[in-house]
Amino acid sequence: MIRGIRGAITIESNTPEEIYSETERLVKEMAKVNNVIPEDIASVIVTTTPDINAAFPAKAVRSIEGWKYVPIMCTHEMNVPGALPLCIRVLMHVNTTVPQKEIRHVYLNDAVKLRPDLVSENQ
């Protein structure tokens, strides 16, 4: 069974250092709380709000020890007026037997505003 694990994080500024460090932090936390190893991952889609363009977040994911061969793609979110700025979102597709309701989605920094219903479940 393939399940999706969602995650999101906001950054303070559109710099490569911030993009890489916060993307890595988010992805590692998503894997940790869901007991996922790279070999379990079918693919990862990373999106950013249009105000993030200084670096590819996928580079940060590929740089994590053991993640070199995980298929990763970056794209931009829709430019919706009033949307949360400077936000990186991740959708990780994993092979797992864990039931859908037991998947733990991860929202960090100001991204907790996106899905407070899921954040409270996972704390």
Protein described:
The protein has 123 residues and is of the alpha/beta class. It has one domain (2-122): 60s Ribosomal Protein L30, Chain: A (2-Layer Sandwich), CATH 3.30.1330.40. It is 25% helix and 28% strand. The chain has 3 helices and 5 strands. It has helices at residues 16-33, 57-62, 116-122; strands spanning 2-10, 41-48, 72-76, 87-95, 106-108. Strands 3-2-4-1-5 form a 5-stranded mixed β-sheet. Strand 2 (41-48), helix 2 (57-62) and strand 3 form a beta-alpha-beta unit. The model has no long low-confidence stretch (mean pLDDT 93). This is chorismate mutase.
Brief description of this entry?
With 123 residues, the chain is α/β, with parallel strands linked by helices. It has helices at residues 16-33, 57-62, 116-122, and strands at 2-10, 41-48, 72-76, 87-95, 106-108. The longest helix is centred in the N-terminal third of the chain and has 18 residues, at 16-33.
Tell me the span between the first and last alpha carbons. 25 Å
Runs in which pLDDT lies below 50 for 5 or more consecutive residues are none
Give the proportion of residues in helices. 25-40%
Rg calc: 14 Å
Characterize the overall form: globular
Number of helices: 3
> What would you say the CATH architecture is?
2-Layer Sandwich
Top-tier CATH class: Alpha Beta
Average residue-wise pLDDT: 93
GO molecular function, one term: chorismate mutase activity
Binding site for prephenate: 6, 89, 107
Protein name: chorismate mutase
Keywords: Amino-acid biosynthesis, Aromatic amino acid biosynthesis, Isomerase
